[in-house]
Amino acid sequence: MTARPRTVFRTMPLPVLLIAVLLTAALLGTGLVPARAQDDPEAIRPTVQAWLLREISKPTLVLTQYSYEGTSWSDTGLGCPVEGATYQPGTVHGYRWTFEYDNHVSYEVHSSIDGGIAVLCSAVNAGSDISLTPYRTSTFAILSPESWLVFPGPNAEVVFGPQPGTACDQPGMRVVVVGRVASGVTPDQLIDEYLGSMGAADRPTERTTVGSFGRTTGYESACQSTTSSATQQRRVSTFIFYGIAYRVEQWAPLAESATWDPLFIQMVSQFGPPDAGIVSATPDAGGADTGGETGADTGEDGAAGNAADLGDLPPFPLTFIFVGDVFLGALNDIPGRSITITPDTERRYLGFSPDGLYIAYTNITDAQLRVMHATEGRSPRRLALDIRTDFPPAWSADSQWIAYVLDSGETDDNGAALLEVHAIHRISGEQRQVTSFAFGGDCSTDSTDPADRLYDAETGGYVLAWLTHDRVLVSTRCDGGLALINPADGSRIDLGPDLTSGVLAPDHHRFAARTAEGLVIVDFDTFQSRSLMVGTDAQQIAWSADGQTLYYATAAPRDTATLDDPDLADRGEAVFGVWPVTVAVYDLTLVQVDVTSGAETLLWQSQGRGIGRIAPAPDGSGVLFSQISSSLLVAEAFQSGADQLALDATWPQPALYWLPASGERGYLLAFAGQPAFAPITVGP
Prior knowledge:
Helix 1 packs across helix 2 and helix 7 runs antiparallel to helix 8. 41% of the residues are buried. Strand 6 and strand 7 form a beta hairpin. It contains eight helices and 43 strands. A seven-stranded antiparallel beta sheet has the order 8-9-10-14-13-12-11. Strands 1-2-3-4-5 form a five-stranded antiparallel beta sheet. Strands 15-38-37-36-35 form a five-stranded antiparallel beta sheet, covered by helices on one side. The N terminus is likely disordered. The protein has 684 residues and is mostly beta strands.
């Protein structure tokens, strides 16, 4: 290559340059290319600069100074070839540019003489400090120096560095998505395998826990180059998240290790899938199975979107559980205000009365039914004691009475518990027994998964529904069966042992139930059942406010992990309360069904323990739902040796999402659960 002798430096006033950058971007956006003269590099500079800002995805940077130098190259690689790329031979005249921006990074760009070809050769930190910035893909997130360039490679690899390639005299980093690993594999085992493949060894004292899911170690190694035998200080870190393994390799010249190694540890300390615990909006149409909680429409960072302005959401009143207490707020004003102040008390079955004036819930800890006025601001009143906490309360159609279930303490001839349905007036406190029924079955479980209990609490218990004409619908067995009771004459209609839970329609005349063959709608006016021929694996069900649409959620087991190492028993019992422990992660979906045609639309898919409460908006503008994270995150953090703070951060919890009907991405609103909207007739 030959270089022309002239090098020109320019320092630019920031306001003037900003206008120039915006004007250039506008011209490029219209497809217009300004006229350029071969001997006038200033004419093509705006084009090259605009290309650079697009290449590094930083369109708002402001240029502080630049320089250029005329030169020539032997092919279209312009002196900065990228490994694996092919170039056309032949002399190319052009310019070597250096642009320095207000992020204190100096970028070297080579361009052809007309600016039609440009390559980014290097990025060097021009300030006194090395600034780290987040980098996110659909599979991982990590900190990297602001000045480093990013080079996606084959086999789910991404290389970071100040220039293309892995020069021995330069620092750098490579992130590799290793893929799915067997249950029980630990990050330490992955490090051992990697070091063995490299013919290297670390000192046992080098191994430390990093982040919530990883282990890291440092070692020295000869540079992997045919042209250099320099020694590098290297660091390898491994992570396991939802059964997917990741490896981060970092290197720097040995003489610079004191500067870079602390930065390397800082980078990997923030490693993880983008927004761990956040799920993706819209289904993935295909692609690699990375096991992360992301899908096709998640944007560049791979995470579900956060609402930029909650004020733009519909102002519908709702209640939910947040930080252990009952809150009353609005969709556009979360969390609103707390109406209880005892977060250690477990509560379930939040719901508004049909007129929207009262909120009822069950105090699980004390087996109490409590009710409060939605707008007066008074504390919840206790209406009943010693109730069955596995049945929800049920409002009468006129909102004056609320029913609940008591255990009589007796059994029938088959050993089934004899239960009583009682009702109490919401204001006067007058009580009466409505009916009684037998409830049988043995459905006890011995799960050790911490997420299971939270999921069970979020999804509710058996069926108690108050229909028109004071008829009552109840579950008759824990493993299936519904009965319709008319307290006026004591008549009872068994609707079938195959009906397993469900939800009452807004008109109180229909009920959507689960069966092994799919969703069934029971009409209480005709006593006809109609199968929708969908939802064979449905678990949670909800009606739209207009009664024309059903929503259902599924949870299919994806992976399980058992922790049973006797050497970890004491620590395991302290963390999980039991040992051994078996945990699982599930593939989750949320599906919409037209009740007339049976047509299905897949709205959401992700991973976790399960979708809990589904609450369609009163006006059909979207659906609000809670999702429980998987305990597999805790198990993986536990195996990586994470401290209690990290274990607490990964402990299963519900997260509240809003999915607009417009098809936009879903929004994480809060880490909250059990959402319930007030009727649409009630103001915020």
